[in-house]
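PROTEIN DESIGN WORKSHEET
SECTION A - STRUCTURE
LENGTH: 288
TOKENS:
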């Protein structure tokens, strides 16, 4: 990544967390564990209340959206929220936008590329600098757009092989910050069960954008049955003891990523426990 891609310091590893799970305590806990960024998932609304709350609860961790859905969040309102947040917490917010998946967004979502272009045009007019935003991208055209009109890309539900291909497509300059899930434990059957549950919403609902990307990575329809084959689950979710899972996450860095957004999966819902076990294996210094 070029040092000019974005001024927001994300660190090497961050945490992707659904907005409904992101409390002030969770945000503060993520910062204490040494993660560099919090990615707010689950399509936060245009007012970005979860972003403001996470920034208020912390002192230095960056906060990003992963992602604001262009179909449900008005671009002018998002730009106004960006300006407000920047005035309150300068330099700590990175706006991630994307088209989501067409199954949830109606027939107009069948042409996401042009809609994202229009959205970026509005953000330009609303004072959101290109180096303070990223675009969710899986396919080649959207990857190209993320390099041309934003700091780079935040691809979701990908593996290191995708990251390697994406880096070649992007070149060396743009930010590449993939999301990758992690389920910890010594019993592969148990971690696969947790991992498969985490993938089920995408696989069982046959979400077109993710299945198309899986096919580009070499998977077939046979891998989408029963919540996902073992091969698919293992490729998309880092599993095992913390050191083993950490090695899988670092594989993104070796493939060309600048930052990895870890999404912890926990059968009991205790996300901070997973993150606490993983942090030392990732080499993160606790901040007290």
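SECTION B - SEQUENCE
RESIDUE ASSIGNMENT:
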């Amino acid at each position: 990544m070029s040092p000019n891609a974005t001024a927001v310091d994300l660190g090497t590893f961050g945490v992707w967390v659904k907005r409904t799970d992101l409390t002030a305590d969770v945000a503060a806990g993520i910062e204490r564990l040494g993660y560099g960024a919090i990615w707010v998932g689950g399509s936060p609304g245009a007012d970005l209340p979860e972003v403001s709350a996470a920034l208020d609860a912390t002192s230095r961790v960056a906060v990003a959206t992963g992602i604001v859905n262009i179909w449900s969040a008005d671009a002018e309102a998002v730009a106004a929220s960006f300006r407000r947040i920047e005035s309150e917490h300068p330099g700590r917010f990175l706006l991630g936008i994307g088209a989501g998946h067409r199954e949830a967004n109606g027939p107009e979502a069948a042409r996401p590329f042009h809609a994202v272009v229009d959205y970026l045009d509005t953000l330009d007019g609303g004072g959101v600098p290109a180096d303070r935003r990223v675009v969710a991208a899986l396919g080649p055209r959207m990857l190209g757009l993320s390099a041309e009109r934003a700091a780079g890309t935040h691809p979701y539900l990908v593996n290191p092989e995708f990251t390697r291909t994406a880096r070649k497509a992007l070149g060396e300059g743009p930010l590449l910050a993939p999301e990758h899930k992690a389920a910890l434990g010594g019993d592969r059957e148990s971690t696969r069960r947790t991992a498969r549950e985490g993938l089920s919403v995408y696989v069982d609902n046959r979400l077109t954008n993710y299945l198309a990307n899986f096919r580009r990575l070499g998977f077939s329809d046979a891998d989408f049955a029963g919540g996902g084959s073992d091969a698919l689950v293992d490729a998309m979710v880092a599993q095992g003891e913390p050191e083993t899972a950490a090695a899988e996450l670092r594989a993104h860095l070796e493939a060309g990523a600048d930052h990895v957004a870890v999404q912890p999966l926990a059968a009991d819902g205790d996300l901070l426990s997973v993150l606490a076990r993983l942090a030392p294996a990732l080499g993160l210094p606790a901040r007290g």
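SECTION C - NOTES
The chain has one domain: 13-183+242-281.
The mean pLDDT is 96.
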